[in-house]
Amino acid sequence: MATIIPLEKARNAAPEKTVSALDTLVQLLDADLQAVNQMILQRMDSDVPLIGQLARHIIAAGGKRMRPLLALAATRLCGYEGARHHKLAAAVEFIHTATLLHDDVVDASLLRRGRASANALFGNQPSVLVGDFLFSRAFQLMVEDGSLDVLRILSNASAVISQGEVLQLTTQNDSATSEQAYLEVVNAKTAELFAAACRIGAVIAARPWAEEEALRTYGLNLGIAFQIVDDVLDYTAQEERLGKTIGDDFREGKMTLPVILAIHRGTEADRAFWQRVIAEQNQRDGDLAHAIDLMQRSGALRDSGERARHYAAIARDSLGLFPDSCLKTALQDVADFVVDRAF
Amino acid sequence: MATIIPLEKARNAAPEKTVSALDTLVQLLDADLQAVNQMILQRMDSDVPLIGQLARHIIAAGGKRMRPLLALAATRLCGYEGARHHKLAAAVEFIHTATLLHDDVVDASLLRRGRASANALFGNQPSVLVGDFLFSRAFQLMVEDGSLDVLRILSNASAVISQGEVLQLTTQNDSATSEQAYLEVVNAKTAELFAAACRIGAVIAARPWAEEEALRTYGLNLGIAFQIVDDVLDYTAQEERLGKTIGDDFREGKMTLPVILAIHRGTEADRAFWQRVIAEQNQRDGDLAHAIDLMQRSGALRDSGERARHYAAIARDSLGLFPDSCLKTALQDVADFVVDRAF
Predict the structure, then answer these.
(1) Chain A residue numbers touching B303 (CB-CB < 8 A)
(2) Do A179 and B303 touch (CB under 8 A)?
(3) Distances in whole angstroms, Cα of residue A325 to Cα of each of A139, A219, B160, B265
(4) Which of B106, B116, B195, B204 is nearest to B156 (CA)?
(5) Staple A222 to which of A315, B292, B305, B321, CB 3.0 to 4.6 Å?
(6) HEC profile for A168-213?
(7) What are the contacts of A112-121 at 24+ separation with CB within 8 A?
(8) 3-class state of residue B299 by DSSP
């Protein structure tokens, strides 16, 4: 796990506030999470050594493990006592990792979580193919588990993610992208897998439809909030944020919410600037600083956070049906954490 | 047009505030709106007298004409100077009216806009068939106009509306309905036609994709905000609100946002209450008052309004691309009006 540096710390809050909701969730699910990490390390290997090397490079490097964590939490929230969810949480992380590998190839990214990306280190070809391997391995794990319902949920999610990635390709560098189109991309490429990870908890635990729906609502809206804040952090994160330099999305011409709002709220001159840097990809020294200044003056960064807060509120409310527990509280607090985090 | 009684009046605001953003929009589009009303009256008739009688009963009775108004406003915002939009705005209103006729049959509603519903007055059979007639008439008008793009947008919207109505049937009386499922119904049954009405403005005016997307975003999000507030008003509207008694949705067991939030935030005892009145449809004197009390104490009504405000904010931002004008300001203000209205 990456070191967690909550926003509260940067704001000099009381020491007890430095334990984030995500830390709490990790602590509550510690044994489960260790079992999943074990499963991941064990199942990412193959007889072809390059596969294990490349997979280890990206998976073992860490990350927040948000999606498997959600699958574990949802399963325990539904009162499940067995161990099936370890395999399925690993499957969810493999699907996510496969999309990361392919994303980095598509975006020609050189860095991932502060280290050389797999494509930078191993080349594009093995990155694409190991992505395919992890994707197939995810389905092998699900087949071993044997639930057609889980297979249906995660195969649907995978199809939607691919659609979302293609949709995102078509909006990249298109300064006319609408907020609605952005939300549709976010729903598909991020929120759908969060929702699927949460839903499988209710499926494994054989809980009523209402709980599956509540968990779908939680995951989907948490995922939207998470992605919006990710896109905000790409312009606002501080040095202590691990693994990414700010402005990556800017340099790639990604049409994220802060950019969309800044364009909508800008003057003619501002729009000419966005047209040059995003659509024409003609960027000069000082452009990123100017972009951030425009986003701050127009309230685009603040209001992107407000938009995220709406989805987090829906996520929080959706868990109301479950009996009170530490796990439920932690999941509800994670919805706020996702909006207020600094990394 | 129904008399407009803005919320500001009830709050004893300054006299100049009694002109709502919707009034302003109506004034700006007065000539267009009269032409559309003319078109509607002229084209709802047929050689079969019962069709004209029944159609006149529901259409001539008024309503806010929100959808044709949006089609007109979007078209003018795009700088269009011709008259094609009158026919298409009438088509949009016919599609909407067809769904109202069918809704009232499905819900066995006796009242619509404060008068006997068409099904109450003429019976179910002619209501269903005249709905079909108006639906077909809408497509005749579009074919006369001749744009396959407009036909594509409105035929897609019609298919989505029907899906939304069927989806709503499946959630009615299901107290386990999630906020996400509610939003999906609202998107389909209401927001999609708002979005389509707005988009055709850009199509008729042959404007770039960015403007069509901006108008789609505006219409879709305005429609969601509009429907959420409609659902809130079903519990909160005052006597001066025209044409509906409060509690209709409650009596029908409709799972609208205030109910969903009240259930999520309720105690076990509260949930037993909702189960009895919504799922089992076993309602007694005082139940509506108790329901409203639960919604008020849990903040469900207030937060439903806050949810609506999020979509209104997206709608407002989406028009940023258009040059400043009275019409643009009126449309942006309509987004706030839709949330703050009292009727």
Answers:
(1) 313, 317
(2) no
(3) 32, 18, 40, 15
(4) B195
(5) A315
(6) HHHHCCCCCCCHHHHHHHHHHHHHHHHHHHHHHHHHHCCCCHHHHH
(7) A112/A58, A112/A61, A112/A243, A113/A2, A113/A61, A113/A62, A113/A63, A113/A242, A113/A243, A113/A244, A114/A242, A114/A243, A114/A244, A115/A57, A115/A61, A115/A243, A118/A54, A118/A57, A118/A58, A121/A57
(8) coil
Return all residues near A191 (Cβ < 8 A) that are at least 6 apart.
A219, A220, A221, A222, A223, A224, A227
DSSP state letter for B112: E
Residues 6+ apart with CB under 8 A from A69: A22, A25, A26, A29, A33, A89
Q: Give the chain B residue whose CA is nearest to the CA of A210.
A: B176
Q: Amino acid identity, residue A264?
A: H
- Encode chain A (343 residues) as per-residue pLDDT tens digits: 333 333 333 333 334 445 799 999 999 999 999 999 999 999 998 889 899 899 888 887 767 899 999 999 999 999 999 999 999 999 999 999 999 999 889 888 888 877 888 998 999 989 999 999 999 999 999 999 999 999 999 999 999 999 999 988 888 888 889 999 999 999 999 999 999 999 999 999 999 999 999 999 999 999 999 999 999 999 998 755 545 678 889 998 999 999 999 999 999 999 999 999 999 999 999 999 999 999 999 999 999 999 999 999 999 999 999 999 999 999 999 999 999 987 7
Look-up of token digits 């509207």: B237
How far from each other are the two terminal CA atoms of chain A, in whole angstroms? Answer: 13
Q: Which residues pair with B112 in a beta bridge?
A: B115
Retrieve residue B162's tokens.
Answer: 């029907």
Give the separation between CA A250 and CA A128, rounded to whole angstroms: 24
Name every chain B residue with its beta carbon within 8 A of the beta carbon of A199: none
Q: Which helix (H) or strand (E) holds A215?
A: helix A209-236
Q: Considering only the beta carbons, identify the residue of A208, A264, A314 that sits closest to B179.
A: A314
Query: Measured between CA atoms, how close is A88 to chain B, in angstroms?
Result: 24
Which pair of structure tokens corresponds to residue B328?
């643009």
Whose tokens are 């599609």? That residue is B95
Q: For the residues of A21-56, what is the DSSP string, one character each? A: HHHHHHHHTHHHHHHHHHHHHHHT--SSHHHHHHHH
pTM of the model: 0.88
**Closest to A217 in 3D by CA, of A320, A139, A78:** A320
With CB atoms and an 8 Å threshold, state whether B217 touches A263: no
Tokens representing B108 are 């066995």
Dihedral of alpha carbons B162, B200, B319, B63, sign = negative
Q: List the structure tokens of B276.
A: 């009895």
Partners of residue A177 in chain B, C-beta under 8 Å: 213
Amino acid identity of residue A332, one-letter, is: Q
Provide φ and ψ at A178, rounded to 5°: -85, 160
DSSP state of A285: T
Backbone CA torsion sign across A254, A256, A260, A263: negative
CA distance B204 to B73: 12
* Chain centre to alpha carbon of residue B306: 18
Q: Report which of B323, B335, B325, B309 is spatially closest to residue B20, judged by C-alpha positions.
A: B335
